[in-house]
Amino acid sequence: MIFTAAVDGSILNDARQLAAALAFSTADLDTFVEGWQDANATPFFVASFDASPAWLAGAQAALSRPLWDAQSKINMAGADRAQQTLVVWAPDMTTAMPKAIVGSLTVIGGVKPLDAVAGMGLVKTPIKAV
Fold first, then answer.
1. What's the CA gap between 76 and 82, in Å, rounded?
2. How many domains does the chain divide into?
3. N or C: less crowded end of the chain, CB within 10 Å?
4. What is the 3-state secondary structure (H, E, C) of the chain?
5. What's this model's pTM, rounded to 2 decimal places?
6. Is residue 85 part of a domain?
7. How far is CA 18 from CA 13, 27, 90, in A?
């Protein structure tokens, strides 16, 4: 299943820690790319990834340091903070797709990435002339 996640800069580092804690290497600390904004021009960072539906259950369960992180590169306290802000939506839910909001990590499952980003109320950041 495809998942698309969005986060603003206020919790970006914590969200990256959570991404790594739920994945397979420190490369996942680079998850989320800039280039999006909400209606208030607040910058947002977005990531899309393919994961099993079981990933979602793991994302909502108690976290533990991955075995591969023997050098403790992941800030697990930050991962926990990000997890506490998690807002999750999938097409089988009866509620409307949530908007991305400041201070929350919004994850949309089962929707094409650009449709998920649009549904979260985000648009590409305009390119600035130099």
1. 10
2. 1
3. C
4. CEEEEEEEHHHHHHHHHHHHHCCCCHHHHHCCEEEEECCCCCEEEEEEEECCHHHHHHHHCCCCCCCCCCCCCCCHHHHHHHHHCEEEECCCCCCCCCCCCCCCEEEEECCCHHHHHHHCCCEECCCCCC
5. 0.91
6. yes
7. 9, 12, 20
Q: Which two tokens stand for residue 35?
A: 């280039």
Which token pair is 93?
């839910």
Percent of the chain with pLDDT over 90: 78
Tokens of 32: 């989320």
Expressed as residue numbers, the domain containing 6 is: 2-124
User: How many residues comprise the chain?
Assistant: 130
pLDDT 10s digits, 80-128: 999 999 999 988 889 999 999 999 999 999 999 999 999 999 999 987 7
CB of 25 closer than 8 Å to CB of 73: no
Burial class (CB in 10 A: 0-12, 13-18, 19+), 81: middle
Beta-strand relationship, 123-124 and 33-37: antiparallel
